[in-house]
From TrEMBL:
Residues 1-23 are annotated as: Disordered. It comes from Paracoccus spongiarum. It holds the Pfam family p450. Keywords: Heme, Iron, Metal-binding, Monooxygenase, Oxidoreductase. The keyword Iron applies. The lineage of its organism: Bacteria, Pseudomonadati, Pseudomonadota, Alphaproteobacteria, Rhodobacterales. This is Cytochrome P450. InterPro entries: Cyt_P450, Cyt_P450_CS, Cyt_P450_E_grp-I, Cyt_P450_sf, Cytochrome_P450_monoxygenase.
Length: 461
């Protein structure tokens, strides 16, 4: 069988977006794009954004700047992050699921949450959670069966198992895994990337609209989390709680105030831990396995590393090829395709005036394939991560976990999880492409429109 191209082509936009001077046409394009966003964020955007340093979109409802210039990315995320807080419009769509979690808060509230959360993800803790990653990986390999499968549900089950073991010291039961996966999948389908409240400058006192299905799926997920948090708080009070991530976070006081998370706050935080540690990890692993299925030379290298891997945490350092493949998968298919910030005052962005309240979009989906910053940006080439590979400027355009103070605190955890699972699955099975190449679409994360099909055959070595 002839393997497919290394990855699906970039989505073809339905129509080009006119340049800024055509103001009336530009407004119409933004409104058409907004309708496209509700169907799929990626295919609604113009192909020229893979070359542009910046694009400005204006309408009567919203004024946005998509910034690919590395200097602007650094300005927003690292040099002056306080002047570009998370957009309140982002909160509108995610509130039913994430509440007031660290992912959507800003300012003093965000800083307090990070002071409590960050110690749980310090370097030394990675060694402590590695047994959870290893056990979930071995369980995932044992569940896989030969033949053509959609790898996304399997990756979701495996990632959910990791996060439950690491957070709550609980191996995920099949019934719970099915409920959680179904609820998250349903929430992805029900939740548009652009909620109507994100397009309309509504006053804060006006009730926000979310579909009944969005509210139901979010409520189901949060109910499961609420039960787990309540049980753990009871175990902590009784002195019988295990020393896992949930216990660490629940018992860590804010060093500035001495206050801990209460039960409601902890539900919000676990919701984002689950989203970040489950949906994003499942997305990255699925695409990495599919990329290996069409690239047999790299697959053999990863399989050899996986076969030699043991349950010793120190052995992870030897997964060089596996790490390069996983990093390249994160480049081509960043789980979170876009990040949205908001101006707090008038700013000048590449000579354009951005008024207070303008939306500043940083798009890993475009940065990671930008043709001015990457050699062969659409090619699957893990070797580019060698010290001499790729353009030097490309490293500033790589943001799978964001950057600066708001970088994902679990980035190290996610990299170890993804690399270990990738290596162990490749060691157990030969991977080949399925009947149809997947088409990437943006839901809560980058997923395959009709799944991600690969074939598994046991390795007889």
């Amino acid at each position: 069988m002839i393997p497919p191209a290394p990855f699906p082509p970039k989505p073809v936009p339905p129509a080009p977006v006119p340049p800024k001077p055509a103001a009336r046409e530009a407004r119409g394009s933004v409104l058409r794009l907004a309708g496209g966003f509700r169907r799929d964020l990626l295919s609604a955007l113009p192909a020229r954004l893979f070359h542009a340093w910046m694009a400005e979109f204006r309408s009567p409802l919203i004024h946005s700047f998509l910034c690919n210039d590395p200097a602007l990315v650094r300005l927003v995320l690292q040099d002056r992050p306080g002047d570009f807080p998370k957009s309140n419009r982002l909160r509108e769509g995610l509130a039913p699921l994430l509440g007031n979690s660290v992912f959507v808060t800003n300012g003093a509230e965000w800083a307090r949450q990070r002071r409590i959360i960050d110690p749980a993800f310090e370097g030394g803790r990675l060694r402590e959670v590695f047994p959870a990653i290893w056990a979930a990986t071995e369980a995932a390999v044992a569940r896989l069966r030969p033949g053509q499968i959609d790898i996304e549900p399997e990756a979701s089950h495996a990632a959910a198992d990791v996060i439950f073991r690491a957070l709550f010291s609980l191996p995920i039961e099949h019934r719970i895994a099915a409920r959680v996966f179904a609820a998250f999948r349903a929430h992805q389908d029900a939740q548009p990337i652009v909620n109507p409240a994100a397009l309309l400058p509504l006053p804060r006192w006006l009730p926000r609209w979310h579909s009944r299905r969005t509210r139901q799926t979010a409520a189901e997920i949060r109910a499961l989390i609420r039960d787990l948090v309540a049980r753990r708080l009871a175990d902590i009070a009784a002195g019988t709680a295990p020393d896992d991530l949930a216990s660490k976070i629940m018992t860590t006081p804010d060093p500035a105030t001495g206050r801990r998370f209460d039960q409601a706050e902890m539900v919000d935080q676990v919701a984002i831990f689950f989203l970040a540690g489950h949906e994003t990890s499942a997305s990255a692993l699925s695409w990495a396995l599919w990329l290996l299925a069409g690239n047999l030379d790299w697959q053999d290298r990863v399989a050899a590393e996986g076969a030699a891997l043991t349950a010793d945490f120190g052995a992870v350092a030897g997964l060089r090829a596996s790490r390069a493949v996983f990093r390249e998968a994160l480049r081509l298919y960043p789980p979170v395709p876009m990040m949205v910030r908001e101006t707090t005052r008038s700013e000048t962005l590449r000579g354009r005036c951005a008024p207070p309240g303008a939306q500043v979009i940083l798009s890993p989906w475009h940065l990671h394939r930008h043709d001015r910053m990457w050699d062969r940006p659409d090619a699957f080439d893990p070797a580019r991560w060698d010290s001499a590979g790729g353009k030097a400027s490309a490293r500033a355009a790589y943001l799978p976990f964001s950057a600066g103070p708001r970088a994902c605190p679990g980035a190290g955890f996610a990299m170890i999880e993804g690399v270990v699972m990738l290596a162990r699955i490749a060691a157990a099975f030969r991977l080949s492409p399925g009947d149809a190449a997947p088409v990437p679409v943006a839901r809560l994360t980058i997923r395959g429109r009709d799944g991600i099909l690969i074939r598994l055959a046991p390795r007889m070595e």
